[in-house]
Amino acid sequence: MRLIGVTGGVGAGKSSILEYISKHYKCRIYLADEVAHLVKEKGENCYYRLLELLGEEVLETESGQIDKKKMAAMIFRDDELLEKVNAIVHPEVRLYLEKRVEEAENNPEIELLFIEAALLIEAGYKDMVDEMWYIYANEEVRRKRLKESRGYSDEKITQIMEAQLSEEEFRLSCDFVIDNSDSLRKSYKQIKNKLEAYTWLEGKKNRN
Predict the structure, then answer these.
(1) Are 75 and 81 in contact (CB under 8 A)?
(2) Alpha-carbon gap, residue 163 to 166, rounded angstroms
(3) I need a surface site. Which of 87, 137, 165, 168 has the fewest CB within 10 A?
């Protein structure tokens, strides 16, 4: 089994790339953002630690689950609190993923396992994966996508981009670059050429 990390800047089109891979290869795909929500669910260790840190005001009134919007509001522009939250959540996410990797290694049906996150490099996942992929798209394309798909303003896009790694930093830390600035068909061809070295089993697969 090949373990591949997938990262890239906002608007680069990581979701579209992974959707294609999920339909054509024997694989499992885990999105770190989705895992982060799982480990924060009521009853999980992470839930109680965050509740202790942030107080009951972070909870949804009816469900008692952690409210993502309320938590985001609490840590907005509070770097110290954000650091404390990350110190709780990130290790739990990594532990969850390590368990999924171990399970996949014992499953002959899985040839490829992908872990996706914008912060894979910063979170230290490079030492965990076999290789790191960078999904690239030029800034003009990314801005257009974010305006059309999410309705973001130029100011918000600039703010997010400036908080992420530069193109140079992404490229220096990654082993393979997919240029997703043009049509998805061209991106799919890059993926197929790359994965031919690792897999011969294709077909629609489950995605976790």
Answers:
(1) yes
(2) 9
(3) 168
CA distances from 152 to 12, 119, 145, 149, 156 (A): 15, 20, 9, 8, 6
- In this structure, the number of other CB atoms found within 10 A of the CB of residue 176 comes to 14
pTM of this structure:
0.87
Q: Which amino acid is at 99?
A: K
User: Whole-angstrom Cα distance, residue 182 to residue 170?
Assistant: 19
Q: Residue 200: is its pLDDT beyond 90? A: no
- Which distant-in-sequence residues (6+ apart) come within 8 Å of 203 by Cβ? 24, 26
Strand-pairing partners, residue 27, are 112
Q: What is the pLDDT of residues 54-83, one digit of tens each?
A: 999 999 999 999 999 999 999 988 999 999
Tell me the CA distances in angstroms from 174 to 7, 45, 74, one per residue in order. Answer: 9, 32, 33
Listed by start position, the domains of the chain span 2-195
